[in-house]
Write a structure and sequence with these properties.
The chain has about 180 residues and is an alpha+beta fold. Helix content is about 35%, strand content about 20%. Among the domains are: about 70 residues, no CATH class; about 40 residues, no CATH class. It is built from 3 helices and 7 strands; from the N terminus they run αββααβββββ.
């Protein structure tokens, strides 16, 4: 065949076809999401848009405090801070606790956690189903292909029941990993 004889359809035809396909895909997507929301509602009695935090939950106290952003005397705010600094009122500044030891913050967080647990207790079946669905699609005990870097081969492996990857290395002997595994 002679490729010079092939012609493309006019731009308008291509644009119309793409637009029509996009409409169909969008409608299918909306129907899919709607079906999923109906399934969740009828199966679990839960709406996807139902807020977990309601007016009945624990509310943190408000203590207005002026917070400065930008150039502040006695603080290193980087190479080019805003000058003059801007200020805003932060009613929840009291919750900032870099050492994670303020009793009032911990008490409030414990109340929020207890409220969350009480509100989501009925979702434990759904939580287990979602977890089992995720786990069914992954190989829990696995090891990736070692890659050389300097005198070692580095790789990661996962072990069933552990939450994190284990980063390892083996010494390179003759271009192949050999010897004992070292966890890095």
């Amino acid at each position: 065949r002679d490729l010079a004889m092939l012609t493309l359809p006019p731009k308008e035809v291509v644009v119309d076809a793409v637009r029509d396909n996009a409409k169909v895909l969008t409608a299918a997507g909306i129907a899919g999401v709607g079906g999923w929301m109906m399934y969740r509602y009828w199966t679990y009695g839960v709406s996807i848009f139902q807020p977990v935090y309601t007016k009945d939950g624990p509310k943190p106290k408000k203590e207005d405090r002026v917070v400065l952003f930008g150039k502040v005397e006695g603080q290193n705010r980087g190479p080019n801070p805003m000058d003059p600094p801007r200020q805003t009122v932060d009613p929840y500044y009291w919750m900032r606790d870099d050492k994670r030891s303020a009793r009032s913050v911990i008490t409030h967080l414990n109340r929020e956690n207890a409220y969350f647990e009480a509100q989501t207790r009925g979702l434990s079946k759904l939580k287990k189903e979602i977890y089992n669905e995720f786990v069914s699609h992954i190989k829990e005990t696995d090891e990736n292909v070692p890659h050389p870097h300097g005198p070692f081969f580095y790789y990661t492996r996962t072990v069933k029941g552990l939450s994190y990857k284990i980063h390892c290395r083996k010494r390179s002997v003759g271009g192949h990993p050999a010897g004992a595994e070292h966890v890095v």
